Amino acid sequence: MQTELSGTQRSSYCAEVTTDQIGQEVVLKGWAHHRRDHGGVLFIDLQDRSGPVQIVFDPDEFSKDAFEAATHIKLESVLAVKGKVRRRPEGTLNPNLKTGEIEVLLSEYEILSTAAALPFPIDEQFNANEDLRLKYRYLDLRRPEMQRNLMKRAQVARVMRRVLDANGFIEVETPCLTRSTPEGARDFLVPSRLVQGTFYALPQSPQLFKQLLMVSGLDRYYQIVRCFRDEDLRANRQPEFTQLDIEMSFPTPEELYKIMETMMAEIWRELLGIEIKTPFEQITYADAMMRYGSDKPDRRFGMEIKDLTAAVTAGGCEFKVFNDIVGEGATIRGICVPGGGEKYSNTQLKPGGELPAFAARHGAKGLAWFRVVEKDGALALDSSISKFFQPECQKRMIEAAGGKAGDLILIVADKPAVAAPALGQLRLKIANEMGMVPEGVYNFCWVTDFPLLEWSEEDKRWTSMHHPFTMPNPEDWDKLESDPGAVRSIAYDLALNGEEVGGGSIRIHRRDIQERVFRALGIGDEEARNKFGFLMDAFQYGAPPHGGIAFGLDRLMMIILGVGSIRDVIAFPKTQTGSCLMTQAPAAVDEAQLKELALKSLVRRES
Q1: Is residue 136 packed enough to be buried (19+ CB in 10 Å), middle (13-18) or exposed (0-12)?
Q2: What is the rounded distance in angstroms from the CA atom of residue 44 to the CA atom of residue 61?
Q3: Which pLDDT score is estimated for 606?
Q4: What is the mean pLDDT of residues 493-504?
Q5: Element (H, E) at 34
Q6: Is the pLDDT of residue 3 over 70?
Q7: Of 42, 467, 472, 581, which is most buried, counting CB atoms within 10 Å of its CB?
């Protein structure tokens, strides 16, 4: 039916029609989402981003040809309609819809665009293959769930801006074309046509530019920025991602914590209706690794790691493996699994069984286990190796682990750097299997006092745990040359439910300290001058003490919305192999483009 509706302004979004408009005429535009034919009367759910409203095609309101054409409207075709709002007949109300009390009786309609056959149903309940969803992402994004995710994402960005604006921060854009600098991952390179043989790099973060903004005197900066890392992909990593980037001059960590906690509390209040308790607890990196085996601890449940070394070495242990490992300077650590004595069988616990195999995948050379049982009126350990531990030693081990009858104690004896992460991963696995992780609980904590450097076995050198511009703790400056591994940094991460949602630090603002850190990293004076000369020069002209933080917006949204994949909170994500199934990127370019850039591809492709 041809009308002039295409040029008529719509009255409102579909789901914003209310009972207050009963008897009024409205103009709506959207997609034909569902269709039902009841006794010659046609009902269609017209849907846009706000949700659906039921529109009614009554044959008495149209010519025979116009009504016949309406019965052939294909799902997901785009319609413009005009009609009167009326209350739904008794017995047809839908309490699950915002518009479930009303419908629109049409007097006119126009098909603005006819949809072809769909590759998959656009339905909340239909679980299409993800590759198919990504190939037709524009259709996948019509699903109410995906539209809600993106609208919530926009809402979070608004809250972030509101809180930061209220605290005197200024939004500043930094370049996307910059020079390649080592920040822990490979850069995406962009060849220059005008200066052939040279390259720009896409930024892994705006780190250097935001530090220069502090030198410029802007004092407080933020940006919701796109960043790029050419790294091996994992399930919840993307080659391009979004972060909230923040920097401020003259801060104390506590001042920064307070503003960030206010922002998080406001986000949780507005999006989830949940009051988050502030201030967040602070825990040192060393304590987090000791208690949870992770620098992003999940603290929604107990089962903390315990040090059993003293309990074992105080006497009564004849187990050679433990005695030898302690003699080599290693440690004995364990977790106590409440009720785990009955949950896990000998088959799962024996060498090569499910739990030892899992611990081995995370670096443990072995996993000892003991069930806590009652024996002769006292608690004792029961396992194939319990005979090597005298009763007094067993008692100390049970007390140190916090064990009760029916519990299971799991032990890794190794260097702390091995025992902690292995038990940390085991702790998470068991907690999920035993339903120990509560839903709807959000446990934030600041992890502080990170080591400045960590040793890379692959590269045989020290590397930055955060980045090369992190300020070493002044108490440890004298160790930068003599004992770099013992130097702590003024760095802090915000952990939430086992995820790192934000990371930052107080930055180096003195040239002499920055040069010493570069040397500790194996970056010579010439390389430092070549790659970071502009930053070092800036430090000579009155650089204020400064620091900041960055939040991964994609990961934060995944937690807020409770979805299983980071791709469900990004409009047009890449696959795990870094490709876009919709645009077929990355793709080869023609020889003329390469020639213009003075480049030649070494990869031969089939034509």
Answers
A1: middle
A2: 16
A3: 59
A4: 97
A5: strand 25-38
A6: no
A7: 472
Q: Taking phi first (over 0 means left), then psi (-120 to 50 degrees means alpha), and beta for anything else, what does residue 51 get? A: left
Residue of 222, 278, 228 lying closest to 548 (CA atoms): 222
Asked if residues 145 and 124 have their Cβ atoms less than 8 Å apart, the reply is yes
State whether residue 119 is helix, strand or coil.
Answer: coil
What is the pLDDT at residue 185? 75
Q: What is the gyration radius of the CA atoms in the chain, in angstroms? A: 31
Q: Name the burial class of residue 184, with classes exposed (0-12), middle (13-18) and buried (19+) by CB atoms within 10 angstroms of its CB.
A: middle
pLDDT surpasses 80 at 348: yes
For 296, the token pair is 């992003």
Instruction: Report the C-alpha gap between 394 and 382 in whole angstroms.
Output: 10
The span from the first CA to the last CA of the chain, in angstroms, equals: 48
For 428-585, strand residue ranges (E) read 444-448, 453-456, 461-464, 491-496, 499-506, 546-552
- Helices 553-561 and 144-166 pack at an angle, to 10 degrees, of 120
- CA-nearest of 36, 70, 20, 30 to 53 is 30
pLDDT for 383 equals 95
Distance between CA 380 and CA 376 in Å, rounded?
Answer: 9
Q: Which two tokens stand for residue 359?
A: 């611990």
Give the residue among 292, 287, 266 at the shortest CA–CA distance from 278.
266
pLDDT, one tens digit per residue, over 76-106 is 999 999 999 999 999 999 999 999 999 999 9
- For 159-187, how does the pLDDT look when each residue is reduced to its tens digit (9 = 90+)? 999 999 999 999 999 999 999 875 567 89
* pLDDT, averaged across the chain: 94
Backbone φ and ψ of 573, nearest 5°: -80, 165
Q: How confident is the model at residue 2 (pLDDT cuts 50, 70, 90)?
A: low
Q: Which residue has the higher pLDDT, 1 or 10?
A: 10
Whether the predicted pLDDT of 418 surpasses 70: yes
CB atoms within 10 A of CB 383: 17
Distances (CA, A) of 262 to 242, 471, 564: 21, 25, 27
The kind and range of the H/E element at 246 are strand 240-249
Beta bridge partners of 188: 202
β 491-496/220-228 pair status: unpaired
pLDDT band of 424, cuts 50, 70, 90: very high
| C-alpha to C-alpha distance for 494 and 283, rounded to whole angstroms | 10
The Cα–Cα gap between 312 and 394 comes to: 8
Burial of 221 (0-12, 13-18, 19+ CB in 10 A): buried
Q: For residues 604 and 607, what is the distance between their CA atoms, to the nearest angstrom?
A: 9
